[in-house]
Design brief:
With 419 residues, the protein is of the alpha+beta class. The chain folds into 2 domains: 3-302, Protein-Tyrosine Phosphatase, Chain A; 346-418, Peptidoglycan hydrolase domains (Immunoglobulin-like, Sandwich). It has helices at 3-12, 17-24, 94-102, 114-119, 144-152, 169-175, 178-189, 194-207, 224-236, 240-248, 250-254, 261-274, 278-285, 290-300, and strands at 65-66, 77-78, 83-86, 107-110, 129-132, 214-217, 301-302, 346-349, 355-359, 369-372, 375-377, 381-384, 387-391, 399-407, 410-418. It is globular and about 65 Å long. Residues 1-36, 158-182 and 318-342 have low confidence and may be disordered.
């Protein structure tokens, strides 16, 4: 186990040990291994991945690159020169900072934790703004109840949760590399932990600001940065395979083995299991408003292929439209209640049939007790305001189900049917 993990565990205590184990791998492999870019290593048939102008050519940040140039499912393209991704920036020379200025960069988003920033600060010039969006952090000022609620959202790593290493385990466990295993589990946690989702929301909100040209980064520019880039590109409508190819390109910029494609696939799987749909994840997980999503698309999307040679007609993109997810499982109504509450709670079942999202009427859920079909559910429950999200160990079978919730001293009974 790394020294940084040991220090973090001692500082935060056992209450967050589960989170720190999961995130440990994100700071274990930090070396900036400068490699000559070889596009043939990744997606040889994807011209956008192989675009030679993608790299910023920074010796001290070899993974610094443009996030644009990709086609989208609706026939447009992601603009180039709007946002860049990178590893840590503290080692840049004055000439390399000038390269960023020449590209219009005026905003940094730092995804690292407090210790990483302290050990290797960006030392950015005063004319470039700086924002902290700590993906692995715990927001300050929380009381014990708020901290408990926050940590309850880390249920992706609850003991016995089938999603833990479900997809990515075959790749990492076979190699027996514990650092890769920690890194892989960290990806899963970033699909549900509220602290991560709030940091991603803040970063996306800044990226949607038309006045900014952003470079966002973590330590190596591949894990937390890779997830944020995947969120951005998927919201913009880039197809899944291209998003995975873009993620895997870190192996070309930083050296073979820097990332495994299965890590990001595992993150997408965790999203699909924990949220009703991609739209539910964007709206209710990340908390992004329709206005922010619209501003992001206006900022980043163009009708002209940015990689086409000047004077050439722009071809129609051929991206497979996979950004729109399968709709949630259909239900016959939203249920009934036996109490005298003003309105019945609404219940939605996710496409995996392993996630329930319950919107409660009235006050936020406190002292919550849940039974489904007579069995008590004590794990895999996350609360946020009046919304309760329940992650089941097994898929719901088609047919009639009874959900009983006792909250705030009130018993609510909901009958619903999965078709």
């Amino acid at each position: 186990m790394s020294a940084s993990y040991t220090r973090d565990r001692r500082r935060f205590g056992p209450i967050v040990a589960t989170l720190l184990v999961a995130f440990a791998g994100m700071v274990l492999v930090d070396s900036d291994r400068a490699e000559a870019f070889d596009a043939s290593q990744v997606a040889p048939d994807n011209a956008a991945i192989q675009w030679e102008g993608r790299s910023l050519g920074l010796e001290h940040a070899p993974n610094a690159r443009d996030v644009g140039g990709y086609p989208t499912a609706d026939g447009r393209w992601v603009r180039t020169g709007v946002a860049y991704r990178s590893g840590r920036l503290g080692g840049l020379t004055s000439e390399e900072w000038q390269v960023l200025r020449d590209r219009g960069v005026n905003q940094i988003i730092d995804l690292r934790n407090t210790e990483e920033k302290s050990e290797a600060p960006d030392n950015q010039p005063s004319d470039i703004a700086y924002q902290e969006s700590d993906i692995t952090g715990i927001p300050p000022g929380l009381d014990s109840a708020q901290l408990t609620d926050l940590l309850s959202t880390a249920h992706c790593l609850a003991p016995g949760t089938p999603v833990s290493l479900l997809t990515i385990g075959n790749a990492t466990l076979a190699e027996g590399d514990p650092e890769d295993i920690f890194t892989a589990e960290g990806y899963l946690l970033e699909a549900c932990y509220a602290g991560s989702l709030m940091a991603f929301r803040d970063a996306i909100t800044t990226l949607a600001d038309a006045s900014t040209t952003v470079i966002f980064h973590c330590s190596a520019g591949k894990d937390r940065t890779g997830v944020l880039d995947a969120i951005l590109l998927t919201i913009l409508g880039v197809d899944r395979e291209t998003v995975l190819d873009d993620f895997e390109a870190s192996n070309a910029y930083r050296g073979a083995g820097s990332v495994q494609r299965e890590w990001l696939e595992g993150w997408f799987q965790a999203v699909s299991l924990d949220w009703l749909s991609w739209d539910d994840f964007v709206r209710n997980g990340l908390g992004l408003s329709d206005a922010t999503v619209a501003a992001l698309r206006t900022r980043f999307l163009t009708d002209t292929d940015p990689l086409a040679p000047a004077g050439d007609p722009a071809p129609t993109p051929t991206a497979t439209p996979t950004a729109t997810p399968t709709p949630p499982t259909t239900m016959a109504g939203t249920g009934t209640t036996t109490t005298a509450s003003p309105s019945a709670p609404s219940v939605l079942v996710g496409q995996s049939r392993r996630v329930l999202r319950v919107e409660l009427a009235g006050r936020p859920a406190r002292n919550l007790r849940i039974r489904l079909d007579g069995r008590r559910i004590a794990t895999g429950v996350a609360r946020r305001g009046t919304v309760v999200r329940i992650r089941l160990a097994k898929r719901l079978r088609p047919g009639r189900h009874v959900l009983r919730l006792r909250t705030n001293g009130t018993l609510i009974r909901v009958v619903f049917r999965v078709l």
